[in-house]
Amino acid sequence: MEKTKVLEFGPLADSKARRRGEKAQTFDFLGLTHYCSRTRNGRRFRMKRLTSRKKFKAKLLALKEWLKANRTSPVPELMKTVVAKVRGHIAYYGVTDNSHGIGRYVHAVRLLLFKWLDHRGKRGSMTLEKFRQFLNKFPLPRPLILVNLFESR
Q1: 32-82 pLDDT tens trace
Q2: Does residue 51 contact residue 101 with C-beta atoms inside 8 Å?
Q3: How, if at all, do strands 27-29 and 32-38 pair?
Q4: How far is Cα of residue 40 from the mean position of the Cα atoms in its chain?
Q5: How many of the other CB atoms lie within 10 Å of CB of 60?
Q6: Helix (H) and strand (E) counts for the chain?
C-alpha cells in the first residue's frame, strides 16, 4: 500500500487543490520529488522535479560519516574522493528544474568539509579565509544541469 498510491496530478490538480485550500500532491520516484507546476511564462502545465528530502538527507549523512571516518587521510586523496562523490551526485540529480536541489547539496558539502577539516587539528584552526584558499586549490564541481528532459529533436 505504501508503494502504490493514486493521486490527483496534472494540469488541473494545482487549481483544484488551491480551491480546497491545500497544496497539490507530489510523489517521489527514483530519488526525485515530482510536483505540478507551470512553464516559465505560466501558460502551460509542466511536471517539475526536485531532489527528494529523504534522499538528500541520506546522501549528506553518508558523506558526513565518510568524512568523519576519513578526515585524517591525506588532503589530496580525501578531496579526490569528495569531488568524485559530488560529481556523481550532480550526474544523477542534475536534471531539468533541479538546479536548486543540487546547489543545496554542494553548499551542504562545503559546510561539512569546513567542519571536518577544522576538526583535523586544533579547534578553530581552519578560518574562513583558509577554507577559501583550500577550495581554490581543491575546487568542488559546480552544480550544473547535465540532463535536459525537454530537449527537442
Answers
A1: 998 888 888 878 888 889 999 999 999 999 999 999 999 889 999 999 999
A2: yes
A3: antiparallel
A4: 22
A5: 17
A6: 5, 3
